[in-house]
Specification:
Number of strands: 15
Helix content: 10-25%
Radius of gyration: 16 Å
CATH class: Alpha Beta
CATH architecture: 4-Layer Sandwich
Order of helices and strands: EHEHHEEEEEHEHEEEEEEE
Number of helices: 5
Length: 242
């Protein structure tokens, strides 16, 4: 099985243009026979909390149909980041497209204090099942909290799939944290980070994988758009740029 994390630079607030970029990256993954690809936090809009309310999507938004079509046609699971409208609230969401299945979503449950004026926390647990492999999703800040990681471990997840928007300092902290997790649990951690300007910081890339019982295996550069693929059979990683 091949699992991929995507590293892209979003066009601020331009959902249609960002969908086009996503499709280019997904095609790259399909050419490499990837089974699952995950994008960074709020990848369809960019990490722009102040704009989230006006940009928020429903999971059945017609513009997202292209992802389901790709999923069905190429038997690939696709996870994209977007602000999601839930009743009168907006959540930081990950929309999950699986082949010939009803699309579902996961919403960030633990918010950073800077996000509280713009978002509400999600409440539902989600596990992505690929054959006999269990993948627990996480979104940025919550992945750095022991309580959230421990939930993934308690669920017997094989992989911790993390979508983030982090600057260099944040990725340095993540490197230390996920190295510790990999050394002390059976979780393999994959992180998809964006690159380029966000609302009030610059996202630093370095999308990475940490294999259980090992240190960081591979990371992308700070300015490359493309994918990092983890091959579960060979326990090896490779990078492909667009």
């Amino acid at each position: 099985m091949k699992l991929a994390v995507a590293q892209v630079q979003a066009e601020r607030g331009n959902i249609q243009l960002n969908i086009k970029k996503h499709m280019e990256v997904i095609d790259l993954a399909i050419n490499q026979n990837v089974d699952l690809i995950a994008f960074p936090e709020l990848s369809l809009t960019g990490y722009e909390p102040k704009m989230a309310k006006e940009l928020a999507l429903l999971t059945n938004d017609a513009r997202l149909a292209v992802f389901q079509e790709k999923s069905d046609l190429h038997n690939i699971t696709i996870c994209v980041g977007a602000p999601l409208r839930e009743a009168q609230n907006v959540e930081i969401g990950l929309i999950i497209f699986q082949p010939n299945s009803t699309r579902k979503s996961y919403a960030k449950q633990l918010l950073h204090e800077d996000e509280l004026p713009y978002f509400k926390p999600g409440v539902n647990e989600t596990i992505i099942q690929l054959n006999d492999v269990k993948i627990a999703p996480a979104i940025c800040y919550e992945s750095m909290q022991a309580a959230h990681v421990n939930k993934a471990i308690a669920s017997s997840a094989d992989y911790y799939l993390v979508s983030v928007a982090k600057d260099q300092e944040g990725m340095d902290s993540a490197d230390q944290w996920f190295t510790k997790i990999a050394l002390n649990s059976e979780l393999c951690v994959l992180v998809a980070n964006s690159i380029g300007p966000c609302e009030d910081f610059v996202s630093a890339g370095a999308s990475s994988v940490w294999h259980s019982k090992n240190k960081n295996i591979q990371k992308m550069s700070c300015n490359t758009e493309g994918i990092l693929i983890w091959d579960t059979q060979t326990a090896s990683a490779s990078v492909f740029s667009i």
